[in-house]
Amino acid sequence: MSSTIPRVADAMRHVLTDVANEAAKKSGFVRRQRKLDGASFVQSLLFGWLANPQASGEERAQVAAARGVQISAYGLDKRLTKRAAECLRLVLEAAVGQAVVAADPAAVPILRRFEGVYVYDGSVVSLPEALREEWPGLGGNGPDVGAAALKIGVRLDLLGGELYGPVLGAGREHDRRLPLKAEALPAGALRLADLGFFDLELLRSVGERGGYWLSRLKGATVVRGATNPTSEGRLDLLALLGELTPGATLELEVLVGDQARLPARLLAKRVPKAVARERRRKLRLDAKRRQQPAVSEARLALAEYTLLVTDAPAELLAAEEAFVLMRARWQVEKLFDLWKRYGRLEETRSKKPFRVLCEVFAKLLGLLVQHWIFLSSAAFWADPYRSLAKAGRTVRQRALALADALDEPALLSGVLKTIAGCLAAGCRVAKRRKEPGTAQQLLALTTDVAGEEAAIAA
């Protein structure tokens, strides 16, 4: 078994020293030789906020002192300017390009059928209104639609753990426009994304490159029967689904899209009444929030069903397996939850616009480094029952030790090895008898687990 620790150590040292110093010069943050160079500046913020996401200026100044730079809390905060934010953005952009993959893939048989299972998602972080010209939001009064906002996109491989992102865009930018290199998946990989990334031409490209895709069917998308592709061959989905009994699954060869006519399998299942009611409530609430017309009766009726489309053949991905695997998309939501709830990505002590922007960029960089550290433990990532929340706490507890070791490769590898052992030993979630988690459901597809409930495909 090979180790990812040397790769993680090299990536950390390269990004947080060489890249940081270069970014400081390129951004104009450092224009002459000084003690607080790009590396010490980036490291002070990253490890200060990684150790304590609510760190005070004094705590971050102490990290700077540990890195050999004596500077007051006021002096450090005074340097959180527009140029400092650009410096941090450049470092983050370079860090995203570092490919770090777990030594052992996730021990989930259905994931191992593919050369990777890549999940895409985006999230929004509100910013001070003064930043609206550079990072425009959607406007309005909602929590995610302010005048200024940052759109964060990620691509996570559930099999090998590789994280591409966070990539940045304006809050008003559509998810599909985020530069997530969706076309760069390896042959034999599976693309799994929510409706915000629904793009038939992109899906066609994935298939032409030897990959596979699985997606929910976007409302109002034209679907034709594969045996009758004429305009008269459009399927009346409501009439077709009306005959579907609870618990039964519909599977049909179709062509998706009015112009694209992409060959696919349509998979459909009726959801419980409580789920359908909740879906309708959310549809109406979203339409009201966006000040859109009332939701159509047809769309409300389709809320009774889960509709999936995929180009993966049935022998590779059976219908029941597809419904369960689609639930794995929520693993990237757990990543965002880790960043926002425990990494305090949306919380700040300041109201100064560029001071806030620096904090967001520094925290994102720290959270990406944290993910690399997760992958340094082969046993942790291979474990289907891994807990990202517990792992994040473990990394935070040792963040300052990482900072102290950064200048010594052997010492840094030793700290990473210690953390890897801790991740493997005590960062797991418990199995649930009621409402089995995603890992249990995925394992139940291919593993005979005595005493566990069968998978539930919503």
Explain the overall architecture.
Among the domains are: 173 residues, no CATH class; 116 residues, no CATH class. 43% of the residues lie in helices and 14% in strands. The chain has 17 helices and nine strands. It is globular, with a radius of gyration of 24 Å.
What's this entry about, in short?
With 458 residues, the chain is of the alpha+beta class. Helix content is 43%, strand content 14%.
Measured between the Cα atoms of the first and last residue, the distance is 37 Å
Morphology call: globular
Order of helices and strands: HHHHHEEEEHEEHEEHHEHHHHHHHH
Question: How much of the polypeptide forms β-strand, as a percent range?
Answer: 5-15%
Largest sheet descriptor: 9 strands, mixed
Spans of at least 5 consecutive residues with low confidence: 449-458
Arrangement of strands in the largest sheet: 3-2-1-4-5-9-8-7-6
SS-based structural class? alpha+beta
Please give the share of residues in helix. Answer: 40-55%
Rg estimate, integer Å: 24 Å
Mean pLDDT metric: 89
Tell me the number of strands. 9
Counting DSSP H or I runs of 4 or more residues, the number of helices is 17
